[in-house]
Amino acid sequence: MKTFAMGGVHPEENKISTEAVIEQFPLPKTAVVLMTQHLGAPATPCVAKGDKVKVGQLIGKAEAFMCANVHSPYSGTVAKIEGCKDAFGIVKPAIYINVEGDEWEPTIDRSATIVRECTLEPKAITEKLKEMGIVGLGGATFPAHIKYSIAPDKKAEYLIINAVECEPYLTSDHRVMMEHAEEICIGVSILRKALGVPNAYIGIENNKPGPIATMKAMAAQFEGIIVQPLKVKYPQGAEKQLINAITGRRVPSGKLPIDVGCVVSNVGTAFAVYEAIQKNKPLIQNILTVTGKKLPSQHNYQVRVGTTYADLIAHSIGTLPPTTGKIISGGPMMGKAVSNLDAPTTKGASSVLVIDESEASRAPESNCIRCGKCMNACPMGLEPYLFSALVKNDRIEEAGAHNILDCIECGCCFFSCPANKPLLDEIRLGKNKYRAIMMAKKK
After folding, report:
1. In whole angstroms, what is the distance from residue 265 CA to residue 271 CA?
2. Phi-psi category of 130—alpha, beta or left, where left has phi over 0 and alpha has psi -120 to 50?
3. What H or E segment, with its residue span, contains residue 78?
4. DSSP-derived 3-state class of residue 435
5. According to the model, what pLDDT value does residue 443 have?
6. For residue 86, what are the contacts with CB-CB under 8 A and spacing of at least 6?
7. CA distances for 30 relative to 60, 201, 215, 295, angstroms
8. Is 177 strand, coil or helix?
9. Helix 122-131 and helix 181-195, axial crossing angle in degrees, nearest 10
10. Under CATH, domain 122-279 is a member of which superfamily?
């Protein structure tokens, strides 16, 4: 069975919310919509305090190249426009909305009727993706219209849909495949048309027999969609590893997937593309998992952007278990601990993971024994122990010369280290310092 060639680990899967069907999360009384829900520059607010807004109305315009439009997930009144701390304590520009009812823009098709035929030409598809504020939902939130606008000197040969969901605990992709397979396949067909490639490959790990069977049955009704089961190995959902698993190609250091003829999008993005192109619906909500071993119930919600983490917890489980150690946005391998529960969710949010103290506490750190396990586990073929030593000794440019920026921050090194050294933390710090040095040299 196919998988990527180098490194990888096998963390405990903990997919305990796979049977939790997608529920519609109730509307909050007030909401905060960040203007930075994507990779790149913040969107520019195009409403003012006191303005009335409807669901789906443009409230943040993409004026920079690397940017994405932001639409209102709610109807109501703009209360204020000012900075807001995100889930990790970073202040970002935001629009505060007092929610009043649920009035949608009349151009949005809210019917349950599935529309298969797409009449738009490739360029019109990418323009529509830009208009609807579609971004990648696999974690990076890369603006989709940029990804699908291929430069004249590049050629796309493969469209790869990432339905791997290799992070422990997360099940939002699992549920969207079980419940919206037809819409996903239509979205994949639209993206295939935008690129002009003959086939699209949907990669799903073999521990998801339900989604594999469901997607295979649906893909058989469409031209050029191939469901590819994959061997279970983390981090197969990382785009470079997924490309290697499905095509055998490797993305060179410093290059992008398109440099080897590949474009990768998340399965949730394909669903959002269907809604944007066929239903004229902007990206104002996503599927989000609320899970944890000590929680009384598990949930997968369709949540509108701007709902706070506190609201998600209060509605799902009421009071947090007294032994809660951390609340993580994302999975335990690549997610980040939430420091501000009053922060709003964003387009790229995938889960609220409640971790018990017994799981959250780190084991005592000891000296590196030069065992090489971190190097064997690295899916990028890097030397994490070396980066750790270089960063600790402030030899940042030397770390850069050894390709520290190639690190995808998957956490395999930390997971495999018998000395419990915080390798990923040190590498993240080193990457940030190296980028700062390079930017200073350009000035």
Report:
1. 11
2. alpha
3. strand 76-85
4. helix
5. 75
6. 34, 92, 340, 343, 344, 346
7. 18, 41, 38, 26
8. helix
9. 120
10. NADH-ubiquinone oxidoreductase 51kDa subunit (3.40.50.11540)
SS3 state at 61: strand
User: Mean per-residue pLDDT for 368-379?
Assistant: 95
Q: What is the pLDDT of residue 442?
A: 84
Class of residue 441 by CB neighbours under 10 A (exposed 0-12, middle 13-18, buried 19+) = exposed
Q: Where are the domains of the chain?
A: 22-108+283-359, 122-279, 373-442
424-432's contacts with Cβ under 8 Å and 24+ in sequence apart are 424/384, 426/387, 426/388, 426/391, 426/392, 427/384, 427/387, 427/388, 427/391, 429/391, 430/387, 430/390, 430/391, 430/396, 430/399, 430/404, 431/404, 431/405, 431/407
pLDDT value of position 138: 85
CA-to-CA distance for 311 and 386, rounded, in angstroms? 43
Can you read off the two tokens belonging to residue 67?
Answer: 């940017």
Burial label for 255, CB within 10 Å (0-12, 13-18, 19+), is: exposed
CA-wise closest residue to 398 among 414, 380, 384, 386: 386
Tokens of 60: 């943040």
**Residue 224 banded pLDDT, cuts 50, 70, 90:** very high
Q: So what's the pLDDT on residue 165?
A: 96
What are phi and psi for residue 385, nearest 5 degrees?
Answer: -60, -35
**Amino acid of residue 428:** R
For residues 170 and 352, the answer to whether their CB atoms sit within 8 Å is no
* C-alpha angle 287-146-70 in degrees, rounded to nearest 5: 50
Which amino acid type is present at position 7?
G
pLDDT digits (tens, 9 = 90+) for 332-354: 999 999 999 999 999 999 999 99
**pTM for the full predicted model:** 0.95
Q: Which residues contact 213 (CB under 8 A, 6 or more apart)?
A: none
Backbone angles phi, psi at 372, to 5 degrees: 80, 5
Distance in angstroms (rounded) separating the CA atoms of residues 319 and 53: 33
Q: What is the mean pLDDT of residues 191-195?
A: 97
For residue 235, say if its preceding peptide bond is cis, omega within 30 degrees of 0.
yes
Please give the structure tokens belonging to residue 424.
């990923």
CB 39 within 8 A of CB 25: no
- What tokens were used for 126? 């990418």
